[in-house]
Amino acid sequence: MKRDGGMSLLEVMVVIAIIVILATVSLSGLTGIVGYERLKGFAMDMVAAMNNARFVARKEGERVCFVISTGEPQNWIDKKMLYFSFIDANKNSKYDTGEKKLAEGYFRGIKVVENDIGKTCVNFENAKCLYFFPVGTPLIGNSDRKIKLKLKNSCYCIKVYRNVGLMDAYACDC
User: Fold this and answer.
1) What is the spatial order of strands in the sheet that 167-171 belongs to?
2) Could you give the number of structural domains in the chain?
3) In what helix (H) or strand (E) does residue 26 lie, and over which residues does it extend?
4) Within its chain, how far is the Cα of 64 from the centroid?
5) How confident is the model at residue 167, as a pLDDT?
6) pLDDT band at 23 (very low <50, low <70, confident <90, very high)
7) Quick check: is 4 in a domain?
8) In contact, 40 and 107? CB cutoff 8 Å
9) How far, in Å, CA of 17 to CA of 25, rounded?
10) Using CA atoms, how far apart are residues 73 and 61, in angstroms rounded to an integer?
11) How much is the average pLDDT of 21-45?
12) Residue 48 burial by CB count (10 A; 0-12/13-18/19+): exposed, middle or buried?
């Protein structure tokens, strides 16, 4: 039987199947990239908040407390957060009424999988505190420290260099 032209139903179905397979493969890769970029953005925001805490401590002449979760986001001051910072005017390592809050951060799905920064916070459950002082470097101990953030299969690390008190964010292995 001779055809005048065009495509058969079977040929159209094969082409549509190929398009669906290619779209599925490309979209799954795209969602991984989007998640990684969200994680990277959150890490950069956290580094900026740490640098701001260091700057405010020197400018205001006050101790600044930077509280960081040791896992899942925590309910601190009636809000889910992975980190927040405040000027600890009375130096009791506790957020009191009237103390100025500087920054807070939370992004659904991101968790802290490693945190060797700072000291265990007495007044905050599942957290470590990093203190910035008016003079000198942050109180972190005798070596460089690291925080590892994770979102699905992507990880991003933040390193605090002990000698200079600078922070850096970079991609790291999970």
Assistant:
1) 111-115, 145-151, 154-160, 167-171
2) 1
3) helix 9-60
4) 20
5) 79
6) confident
7) no
8) no
9) 12
10) 30
11) 80
12) middle
For the residues 55-75, what does the mean pLDDT come to? 85
Q: Tell whether 15 is covered by a domain.
A: yes
Residue 150, phi-psi category: left (phi > 0), alpha (psi -120 to 50), beta (remainder)? beta
The mean-pLDDT minimum among 17-21, 100-104, 107-111 falls in 107-111
Bridge partner residues of 112 (DSSP): 149
Q: What is the CATH number of the domain that holds 49?
A: 3.55.40.10
Separation of alpha carbons 28 and 160, rounded Å: 34
- Residue span of the structural domain in which 106 resides: 9-171
1 within a domain of the structure (yes/no): no
Q: Is residue 3 part of a domain?
A: no
Q: How far is CA 172 from the centre of its chain?
A: 13
More confident residue, 127 or 122: 127
Residue type, 92: N
Three-state DSSP state, 158: strand
pLDDT at residue 87, rounded to an integer: 92
* Neighbouring residues of 110: CB distance < 8 A, sequence distance ≥ 6: 38, 39, 42, 82, 149, 150, 151
Nearest to 49 by CA among 169, 136, 163, 174: 169
